[in-house]
Amino acid sequence: MVKILVTGGLGFIGSHTVVELQNEGYEVVIIDDLSNSSIKVLDGISTITGKTPIFEKLDLKDKAGVEAFFAKHSDIKGVIHFAASKAVGESVQEPLLYYENNLATLVYVLKELKKLPEASFIFSSSCTVYGQADELPITESAPVKQAESPYGNTKQIGEEIIRDTCRVTPNLKAIALRYFNPVGAHESGNIGELPIGVPQNLVPFITQTAIGLRKQLSVFGDDYPTTDGTCIRDYIHVVDLAKAHVVALERLLKNKNKGNYETFNLGTGTGSSVLEVVKAFERVSGEKLNYKIVGRREGDIISAYADTRKANNELGWKTKLTLDDAMRSAWKWEQKVRASE
Ligand code: WQD
């Protein structure tokens, strides 16, 4: 079996990707430091697939630990790298924590991959690199803009580190996947998003409000130049997103890549406003959501949604699940998490 390392594999997107890798017959090794995830996710994964991935608790800032890991697992053929801190607001307050945790760790992993006979590397990037794009939908050739936060900057710098390394490392090839807004959960209800503390993102805040954990959803502004005045985003179901990681990895493993560093936008290609997301949730859950319109959130861009042609044509991948599917699965997951508390 082809062995694949998934760093941050107990996280939201990481765990869903591990499931899809196992479904495709890969042997999966997970590294996670459990700083923003729970070991219980391992049970959720094995309940779905019937297979328990190899798990090693490791903080990738531990350079010697990373070296020891790769010495032990020298048969790794590919890495899907999710491990990173991702709270935009926190990154503004703690920039050095973000530069160390998101970039020093990336350097340590890449240094080990350089030593392997050959390696395929998939990087978890984000549409945040585009800032407020001048043209919509957003293509991969849209200019990378001044990041709105240190978190976004670590994605931009991370891509440059990988690009520059691949350029002079013939045995290393990489793809950066620029996600739009990942939402939803696995249909089984066994894995999903587990935000720690008060959710920053829209959909977990919606489901926690509906379940009674939060009093009311604040909608950050309805005076934007959009159809209903609220911001527009491209909400992609996390299972579609996870499947795209397997497809991208196989593009590299099967040497179908064009050049040894590529980027792909991963979205549905459709923009949805905040109020449209709220309405979709109410429709599929039958719950009336308690929300109020408040002032704009600093740093929010007006609108972002993907031009999906490159991923459709080059990866042969497109989303299959809808916003309603995402709301339905997110609600099922929320209800299951609260029932088990
Ligand atoms: C979506 C919309 C908010 C919460 C962030 C990161 C991005 C990526 C995805 C990691 C916006 C509105 C939100 C709330 C609201 N993360 N909103 N009330 O900001 O598009 O992207 O998460 O890669 O890098 O920047 O996602 O879910 O926070 O917000 O009205 O309580 O929902 O204003 O318009 P965002 P989000």
Bound heterogens, unique: UDP-4-deoxy-4-formamido-beta-L-arabinopyranose
- Beta strand count: 13
Q: Tell me what portion of residues adopts beta-strand conformation.
A: 15-25%
Helix content: 25-40%
Pathway: Carbohydrate metabolism; galactose metabolism
InterPro entries: NAD(P)-bd_dom, NAD(P)-bd_dom_sf, UDP_G4E
Pfam family, one: GDP_Man_Dehyd
Cofactor: NAD(+)
Task: Describe this protein's structure.
- The chain is an alpha/beta fold and 341 residues long.
- It has eleven helices and 13 strands.
- It has helices spanning 12-23, 40-49, 63-72, 88-93, 95-113, 150-167, 202-210, 238-253, 274-285, 309-315, 323-339; strands spanning 3-7, 27-32, 54-57, 76-81, 119-126, 172-179, 181-183, 217-220, 232-233, 235-237, 261-266, 272-273, 291-294.
- Strands 3-2-1-4-5-6-11 form a seven-stranded parallel beta sheet, sandwiched between helices. A two-stranded parallel sheet has the order 7-10.
- Helix 1 runs parallel beside helix 2.
- The protein is globular and about 55 Å long.
Briefly summarize what is shown.
The protein has 341 residues and is α/β, with parallel strands linked by helices. The chain is built from eleven helices and 13 strands. Pfam families: GDP_Man_Dehyd (PF16363).
Descriptive tags:
about 350 residues; alpha/beta; seven-stranded parallel β-sheet; two-stranded parallel sheet; about 20% strand; binds UDP-4-deoxy-4-formamido-beta-L-arabinopyranose; UDP-glucose 4-epimerase activity
